[in-house]
Amino acid sequence: MRTAAGALLAALDESGRQRAGHAFDDEPARRWLEYRPRPRPGVPLADLDVAARKAAHRLLATALSPPAYAQAMAIIALEEVLDRAEGWRRGRHSGDYWVALFGDPVADDRWGWRIEGHHLSVSMTVVDDQVSPAPLFFGANPATVRHAGRPVSRPLGPEEDLARELLDTLGPAGRAAAIIADEAPGDIISATRPTAPARLDPLGVPRDRLTPTSRALLDQLVALYLDRLPPELAAREAGRLDGGELHFAWAGPTRPGQRHYYRVQGDDLLIEYDNTTDDGNHAHTVLRRPASDFGADVLAAHHATAH
Questions:
Q1: pLDDT in tens, 116-163
Q2: Which portions of the chain are predicted below pLDDT 70?
Q3: What is the mean pLDDT of the chain?
């Protein structure tokens, strides 16, 4: 990751370096989280030449597994699809994704980076060569494009299908505990806050009340989100959660094609999914660590050691 970030710096011209670069201690810029199309800290990919854009993609790939990188590329490409669906009125484009660097990845012990735009936000913080990988936001609009009744594009399909499979196995009592509202909220609850809520109530159904089949599916759902990360980071995050309690909650109707929401909570874990606009065809998903987002965990360890 450090090598890829250094290569990006080298590929940027002077203007690009000035726009992309921020001090690590610039907390408002570093803790920025936004999944709506608007200006943001950094430099947009549209303003970079081919070499710099490719360097940005290579940096992004260091934070994502191959399947998640494919999801991210599909999400970015959907900007052109959405622009056409809206009659080209808003000028959405796949170059409207921005890269920002915090600190000096070549020389500093504390540095970070983010690639973000409408429906993608990947933030990585590196302290003493330890990577803190959150928040991680993926969205999709349209969530599904169909032809002749079959999906042509559905980048976040596994996130919906696996949760529905889990819901189906709960049985009447389990579903009564898991379903926390008849209507889905308007968006993910953590929204674009730089600090996620440490705990959200009600929590739904706890893992230890599930059948073995349902527990296995909940574990698979958590693994699906952790596996957005490269294997070594995913394994570390899974180990951090091992043995902790998990809760699964659902809001909204259970029939496909209607507005729905779910979340999974654990010790320093918040997974949220919503598909609550455009009649259930506009999805948001996020992986957050409420106590450790934006490197709070590795920064705390660094300060304890350094001071």
A1: 999 999 999 999 999 999 999 999 999 999 999 999 999 999 999 999
A2: 307
A3: 95
Three-state SS for 241?
A: helix
Q: How many other CB atoms are found less than 10 A from the CB of residue 85?
A: 14
Kindly tell me the sign of the dihedral angle through the C-alpha atoms of 55, 61, 241, 100: positive
Tokens of 251: 């809001």
Across the strands, what pairs with 111? Answer: 126
pTM value surpassing 0.85: yes
| Contact call for residues 205 and 247 (beta carbons, < 8 A) | yes
Q: Which residues pair with 146 in a beta bridge?
A: 151
Q: Which of 167, 259, 143 is nearest to 221 (CA)?
A: 167
Conformational region of residue 54, where left means phi above 0, alpha means psi within -120 to 50, and beta covers everything else? alpha
User: What's the one-letter identity of residue 192?
Assistant: T
Concatenate the DSSP letters of all residues of 210-225 into one string.
Answer: S-HHHHHHHHHHHHHH
Residue 17 tokens, joined: 């370096």
**Residue 241 CB neighbours (<10 A):** 18
d(CA 118, CA 37): 5
Rounded to an integer, what distance in angstroms lies between the CA atom of residue 20 and that of residue 253? 43
Q: Name, in order, each residue with C-beta under 8 angstroms of 96's C-beta and a sequence gap of 6 or more.
A: 37, 44, 45, 46, 79, 117, 118
Beta strands 179-181; 21-22: pairing state: unpaired
